[in-house]
Amino acid sequence: MQKRLRDYGIQIGTLPTGPFNKITDVQGVKVGHSTISNGDIQTGVTAIIPHEQNIFNNKVVAASYAMNGFGKTMGTLQIDELGTIETPILLTNTLSVGVAANHLIGYSLAKNKEIGDTTGTVNPVIGECNDMFLNNIRKQSITVEHVREAIETADTHFEEGSIGAGMGMKCFGLKGGIGSSSRILTYPHGTYTLGILVLSNFGEIDQFRLNGIHVGPLIKSKLPVKSPEGDKGSIMIIIATDLPVTSRQLKRIIKRASVGLSRTGSFIGNGSGDVFIGFSTANKVNHENNGRLQKIEAVHEDDLDQAFLATADATEEAILQSLVTAKTTIGRNENTLYSLAEYMDEIL
Q: How many CB atoms lie within 10 A of CB 229?
């Protein structure tokens, strides 16, 4: 069992978490990984599946937001225009966006014979971060088989840290990667879940905050080797919920991931691509026009405050989760990134 943030006695915020304290607490959401860890190749793919039905035919309400657009994300243009997602979401390294998109297109074509024949095309959604500090990214080691494995192994239980797309990532000069957290929202009209998954690859160690405590300089002084300087990475933040919202409301919600991001010490640096993608499973949007009105339920604007808070808290925890679950890793050119877990006893 991986030791997670709350195992160290650290609790972010007051809202309750779901049973897994992961994005998969949102019913129907699954996450899968494919990982390569071999010498100078430290990379992978992570897949987020919004629900168990045919996603192309049963699209989810969605939104995206680029806090800082230094990135090569695919699919967000159509998300912003139409307000839906119609494929799984894939995360990988920057130079593997193309191969990830190719397989995701093939995956969709295999499941939907009408695509490109009697209906339109498909909008694959891919997010990326640059893992070149640990990974020889020029070798473009990700293949269709890795993308397929990430999709096909998706489950409600999944590992965090140095896994999948997170294998080669650097966060605050430490080993970053995949992290996740969730919160329960309670209203008179129902109980809902909001979950976060991050691919963390950003930040300067001097700025790092752990639950509001400025621990970065202390950790930096104890590192065996000098930490890489500058904030030249990125973070992908995926927000899932079953709260009934419109695309516009969802965009308001996912913007609050920036609050959790800044709490950890990010100042949204010039070289950091900070991209948020969110979806709600509460309303499915049919691909076919059946001649009837689309009916979408949505909460009142006043109900959004609780979702804003949940997004901020769960994002902060997911980032910290990615750090404490990651393992110390040696990669390209013997570059080494150390796990935050190695310093937790000293800084608590």
A: 10
The rounded Cα 80 to chain-centroid distance in angstroms is 18
Predicted TM-score (pTM) of the model is 0.97
- Give whole-number Cα distances, 346 to 8, 191, 237, 326, in Å: 12, 39, 29, 17
Listing from the earlier edge strand, what are the strands of the sheet with 41-49? Answer: 30-38, 41-49, 89-93, 125-129
Q: What does DSSP assign to residue 127?
A: E
Tokens for 38, please give them.
């071999």
H or E element, residue 285: strand 273-286
Residues 6+ apart with CB under 8 A from 230: 204, 269, 271
Per-residue model confidence as pLDDT tens digits over 10-45: 999 999 999 999 999 999 999 999 999 999 999 999
Is 92 within 8 Å of 46 (Cβ atoms)?
yes
User: With 0-12 CB in 10 A as exposed, 13-18 as middle and 19+ as buried, what is 346?
Assistant: exposed
Q: Model confidence over 181-190: pLDDT tens digits? A: 999 999 999 9
Confidence of residue 226 (pLDDT cuts 50, 70, 90): confident
Strand partners, 129: 93
DSSP letter string, 235-250 = EEEEEEE-S---HHHH
pLDDT (0 to 100) of residue 19: 98
Give me the active site residues, please: 234, 272, 274
